[in-house]
């Protein structure tokens, strides 16, 4: 979790969004050494929650979880798997996250 950012993957993400007819949302998570783990995972979790529960005045409507595809490569792939584990565990425990009031 130390190099690159969403701009380095923009051409590939754009192509995938076009091929699938979907939209893309890339997360610019904080990197080490300034922000040690689990900061990057928390950034990804917050980004996911912002899709589900956008704040008042957001530029998008809430996105249903079944319409979200989470993916990544290298460190982003690791974060993808960790985020999915967090989401599954929250669902398993029946934890409801209250967001924006």
Describe the structure.
- This protein has 101 residues and is mainly α.
- The chain has one domain (6-92).
- Helices cover 43% and strands 0% of the residues.
- The chain has 3 helices and no strands.
- It has helices spanning 10-20, 39-52, 75-92.
- The radius of gyration is 14 Å and the shape is globular.
- The model has no long low-confidence stretch (mean pLDDT 90).
Summed up, what is this model?
The active site is at 74. By secondary structure, the chain is mainly alpha-helical. It contains three helices and no strands.
Shape: globular
**Count of folded domains:** 1
Tally of helical runs: 3
Helix content: 40-55%
Low-confidence stretches: none
**What string gives the helices and strands in order?**
HHH
Work out the strand percent. Answer: under 5%
Task: Please describe the biggest sheet, giving its number of strands, its sense, and whether it closes into a barrel.
Answer: none
Mean pLDDT: 90
Q: Alpha-carbon distance between the termini?
A: 32 Å
Active site: 74
Protein name: Alpha/beta hydrolase fold-3 domain-containing protein
Domain Alpha/beta hydrolase fold-3: 5-89
Organism: Photinus pyralis (Common eastern firefly)
């Amino acid at each position: 979790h130390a190099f690159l950012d969403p701009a380095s993957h923009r051409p590939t993400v754009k192509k995938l969004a076009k091929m699938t007819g979907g939209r893309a949302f890339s997360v610019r998570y904080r990197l080490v050494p300034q922000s040690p783990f689990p900061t990057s995972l928390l950034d990804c979790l917050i980004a996911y929650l912002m899709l589900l529960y956008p704040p008042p005045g957001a530029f998008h409507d809430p996105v249903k979880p079944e319409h979200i595809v989470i993916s990544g490569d290298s460190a982003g792939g690791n974060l993808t798997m960790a985020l999915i584990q967090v989401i599954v565990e929250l669902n398993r425990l029946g934890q409801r996250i209250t967001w924006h009031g």
